[in-house]
């Protein structure tokens, strides 16, 4: 009798999986229709049925939307509030309201950590490492699945780290240098492969001291280290994963890297906040920095971080105050760049990092 019941349940499950996504339509046609639903309604789609929920939360869904140019990019911001706790917000730049929304339930153990890495890979946001006043550096990693709207534990780093460079190249996360439990940690870096869900430790004699910022350009990780207070010299290094080699960034390029950086169509832009707020552009052929324009002091609330979607650069400051600049059509009025703005939150949260996630 038990055997018959279990067989009946198995048959029921098989029939359930064969239920079409949309009654009367082949699944490929149904997917063609559903994938065109804007991302802001995906939470509603998941409520229709288990099959719809599993589809919307799958990698196949994301891959299909990207392949057919249906994907939408949202911005995720890691901040620190007035309680000195980490909080995370998300912005849909295509929304008519264009307002930042709080992502709830950040992992409790990570709330008061500092020096945490913040990165995006696939449809996941990662919160890596970090340390506290009474807590040593940790190897813990947390993952926020943007499709499921849920935080989860993820594979830990090979070694504990805080205040390290964190970037993605070729669908792999690189966690480079920083402070750890051992002095040798500044000579090492971890590489995360999503396909194996595992970190691999690499060690090199090169030392990457106190890291301030990083970006990826031409398949290489550029890292800016602390600027000398005596000489104002900017010290920067570059790592090339394909050859596993480290080099110093040439002095001309390093000299103008005095703020958060972003790449737009292969061109490097830097937000210089040393005197007001102005956007600088690195011209490779001329080997020189060119000012793009100043930003209005009425709109920006430094210190800011920057991120790019297409040809638009989003400058995010305190309280997630946001200024949007179209560098493909950047105009100036009285020396101030023409831009649009997104209302800030009713807070003075400090911005730590910004990343883009596409579904």
Task: Describe the model.
The chain is mainly beta. It folds into three domains: 66 residues, no CATH class; 125 residues, no CATH class; 151 residues, 6 Propeller (Neuraminidase), CATH 2.120.10.80. The protein has a four-stranded antiparallel sheet, with no helix packed on it. β1 and β2 form a beta hairpin. The longest helix is centred in the first third of the chain and has 16 residues. The relative contact order is 0.11. The N terminus is likely disordered.
Q: What is the secondary structure topology, with strand pairs?
A:
Elements: H1 2-17, H2 27-34, H3 42-45, H4 50-56, H5 59-67, E1 73-80, E2 86-91, E3 101-103, E4 117-121, E5 124-128, E6 141-145, E7 150-154, E8 165-169, E9 172-176, E10 188-193, E11 198-203, E12 211-217, E13 220-225, E14 236-240, E15 245-248, H6 251-255, E16 261-264, E17 267-272, E18 278-283, E19 288-294, E20 305-309, E21 312-316, E22 322-326, E23 332-333, E24 336-337, E25 340-342, E26 350-358
Antiparallel strand pairs: 1-2, 1-26, 2-3, 4-5, 5-6, 6-7, 8-9, 9-10, 10-11, 12-13, 13-14, 14-15, 16-17, 17-18, 18-19, 20-21, 21-22, 22-25, 23-24
What best-fitting shape do the alpha-carbon axes yield? globular
Number of domains: 3
The CATH topology of the largest domain is given as Neuraminidase
The CATH homologous superfamily of the largest domain is called: Kelch-type beta propeller
Please report the number of helical segments.
6
Using the CA coordinates, give the radius of gyration: 23 Å
Strand content: 35-45%
Number of strands: 26
What's the CATH C level of the largest domain?
Mainly Beta
- Which strand order spans the largest sheet, edge to edge or round the barrel? 3-2-1-26
Measured between the Cα atoms of the first and last residue, the distance is 47 Å
| Uncertain parts | 1-16
Going by helix content, strand content and strand pairing, the class is mainly beta
The average pLDDT is 90
Biggest sheet details: 4 strands, antiparallel
CATH architecture of the largest domain: 6 Propeller
């Amino acid at each position: 009798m038990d055997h018959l019941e279990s067989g009946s349940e198995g048959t029921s499950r098989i029939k359930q999986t064969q239920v079409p996504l949309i009654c009367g339509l082949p699944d490929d046609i149904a997917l063609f229709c559903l994938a065109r639903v804007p991302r802001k309604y995906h939470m509603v789609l998941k409520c229709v049925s288990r099959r719809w929920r599993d589809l919307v939360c799958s990698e196949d869904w994301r891959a299909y939307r990207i392949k057919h140019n249906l994907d939408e990019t949202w911005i995720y911001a890691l901040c620190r509030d007035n309680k000195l706790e980490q909080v995370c917000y998300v912005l849909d730049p295509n929304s008519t309201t264009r307002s930042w929304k709080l992502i709830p339930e950040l992992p409790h153990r990570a709330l008061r950590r500092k020096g945490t890495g913040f990165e995006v890979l696939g449809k996941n946001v990662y919160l890596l490492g970090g340390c506290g006043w009474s807590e040593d550096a940790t190897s813990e990693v947390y993952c926020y699945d943007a499709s499921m709207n849920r935080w989860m534990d993820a594979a830990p780093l090979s070694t504990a780290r805080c205040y390290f460079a964190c970037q993605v190249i070729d669908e792999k996360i690189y966690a480079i240098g920083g402070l750890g439990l051992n002095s040798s940690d500044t000579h090492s870096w971890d590489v995360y492969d999503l396909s194996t869900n595992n970190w691999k430790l690499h060690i090199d004699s090169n030392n990457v001291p106190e890291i301030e910022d990083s970006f990826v350009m031409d398949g290489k990780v550029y890292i800016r280290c602390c600027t000398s207070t005596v000489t104002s010299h900017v010290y920067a290094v570059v790592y090339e994963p394909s050859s596993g080699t480290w080099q110093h960034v040439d002095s001309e390029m390093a000299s103008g890297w005095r703020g958060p950086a972003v790449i737009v169509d292969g061109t490097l832009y830097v937000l210089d906040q040393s005197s007001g707020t102005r956007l600088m552009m690195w011209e490779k052929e001329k080997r020189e920095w060119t000012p793009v324009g100043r930003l209005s002091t009425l709109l920006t609330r430094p210190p800011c971080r920057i991120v790019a979607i297409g040809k638009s650069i989003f400058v995010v400051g305190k309280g997630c105050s946001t200024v949007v600049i179209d560098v493909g059509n950047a105009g100036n009025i009285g020396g101030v760049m023409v831009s649009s703005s997104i209302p800030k939150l009713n807070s003075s949260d400090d911005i730590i990092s910004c990343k883009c996630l596409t579904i």
